[in-house]
Amino acid sequence: MTRAQLLLVSMFLLLPTALAAEETAAPQAGTIRQTVEEPTAYREDEYRAPVPATLAGATVVSTAEAHALWESGGAAFIDVLPRPPKPANLPEGTVWNEKPRISIERAIWLPNTGYGKLADLTLAYFRNGLEKATGGDQTKPLLFFCLPDCWMSWNAAKRALELGYGKVYWYPEGSEGWAAAGHPTVQLQPEPGADQ
Questions:
Q1: CA terminus-to-terminus distance, the chain
Q2: CB–CB of 139/167 below 8 Å?
Q3: Is the domain defined by 49-85+99-196 classed in CATH 3.40.250.10?
Q4: 8 Å CB contact between 157 and 79
């Protein structure tokens, strides 16, 4: 084989590797995110997926806008990230240490309330949590979040609107966007009643 033929063969063999690396690389600045149309109903599966840019009836906020609301005390922050489930069939006597939830300081954590369908007990827990956060005033602003590309906060904000809350904010970047901006975070404990 000539030197030119060897060069061509090696380039051909390396091409799939280069393409695979390009496909898995992080998106470059200016890359357009996948457009997701806002549904009319709750999302009931694949909760970690691209989310729409809108939520009818709510105000979608950026990290800077969320931080301004937090600094002013202009909204109650509601974290709806689910609790990690305890592994089934742990040997007797095994200590289960749940992964801590590091989230936005002063937020109220209402885990498992962002699913598309809620059991009656979970819905009551959600209502009670919102009542506590607002002091029973449905005009008090609420800001919902979890993680980026997570439908849980979208569902919870939509549910709050349907429960009659008049000023609802949705923060799609969630606790990760907040922490990346260097804003205060703490370890949260779920509001009492989360185990029901």
A1: 72
A2: yes
A3: yes
A4: no
Taking residues 157-185, what's their average pLDDT?
Answer: 97
d(CA 136, CA 82): 24
**pTM metric for this prediction:** 0.80
Per the listing, tokens 């979890």 go with 146
Cα–Cα distance between 192 and 196 in angstroms, integer?
9
How many other β-carbons are positioned within 10 Å of the β-carbon of residue 166?
A: 13
Banded pLDDT at 34 (limits 50, 70, 90): low
Residue 171: how many CA atoms within 13 Å on its side-chain side?
Answer: 31
Domain boundaries defined on the chain: 49-85+99-196
**Cβ neighbours of residue 119 closer than 8 Å, sequence gap 6 or more:** none
